[in-house]
Amino acid sequence: MAQTTKVSLKTHVDLPCGLDPQGSHCRYDQVPPVVQKLAALWETENCFEHIGPVPIPSHQAIIQIIHQVRQILFPGYFTRTKLHAANLEYYLGKETTELYERLAEQVTVAIRHDCRRTNLTCTHCEERGHRLTIAFIETLPHITGLLTEDIRATLAGDPATSSADEVIFCYPGLLATSIFRMAHELFQLGVPIIPRIMTEHAHSLTGIDIHPGASIGPGLFIDHGTGVVIGETTIIGRNVRLYQGVTLGALSLPRDAGTTLQQVKRHPTIENEVIIYANTTILGGDTVIGAHSVIGGNIWLTESVPPNTRVLLKRPELLYSDKKRAPSR
């Protein structure tokens, strides 16, 4: 009997993984048309870009500045240098001088960038940058005093710790508050964009979102902290305690709010010695929570509360059922 020969229908030879001829499937020639479309889009007013001779502030440089300020505010905590009374002044002088140089450069760039963005005439960017930087450095003792009271409030309000070291090293509330306090001073001085870079960096690290324009008194204690939101025009008094998920926000805003309500108070006022428990939302620029009040968890408030008031939700009705199935018959 004649033998039949099987004919393979494969059009290519199977090779072990990794032995496929390199470059045989590249599509580099399809990249340039996409690049041309992107470049054409950036030439229109519909896209945002930053192309030109004036640089934008460095996000990484701002983060380094945050670390350096914390090294100055908390000597010995965030550095490998061993500090003692004999070299403390030298250490602080060295760190503060380096901070001045780094921050002055970034503030000057931020001012120039703002001038370019808004088409301003010359505002003497470099002179302003150095003047605002030294003005900020002069606030460092004040910031230190505020953070000292924030730490004391944390120790007084949280039975889970008795160590200032633990609060400084570990607590996200203090990290967010310390970055806010340095950003707030720069915001008050009129430094563009840098304060927001700082607080949004804190937001990314801790989940706590504090606008640098908020006004916050000493002794703030944010416990746990994740999901806390404090809006730009919020006013918070002394020794206020906030728990996770608290929102101090604005009421519903119109579509053009970004231009029409910039100078309007949109966020609430929280007076001294107030406690606000988890997941509570307080909204509105006319809303005032009176001193020494306690606001319970999961509450929605759009109206003011008198001093020395306790606001609680009525206990919900709970339903209980047996998870076991009824016996079959």
UniProtKB/TrEMBL annotation:
Q: Does the keyword tRNA-binding apply?
A: no
Q: What are the recorded GO MF terms, alphabetically?
A: acyltransferase activity
Mind telling me which InterPro entries this protein's record contains?
Answer: LbH_SAT (IPR045304), Ser_AcTrfase_N_sf (IPR042122), Trimer_LpxA-like_sf (IPR011004)
Task: List, alphabetically, the Gene3D superfamilies matched.
Answer: Hexapeptide repeat proteins (2.160.10.10), serine acetyltransferase, domain 1 (1.10.3130.10)
- Is Transferase tagged as a keyword? yes
Q: Which UniProt keywords apply?
A: Acyltransferase, Amino-acid biosynthesis, Transferase
Q: For this entry, list what GO says about its biological process.
A: amino acid biosynthetic process
* Highest taxon listed in the record's lineage: Bacteria
PANTHER family, per the entry: SERINE ACETYLTRANSFERASE
Name of the molecule in the record: Serine acetyltransferase
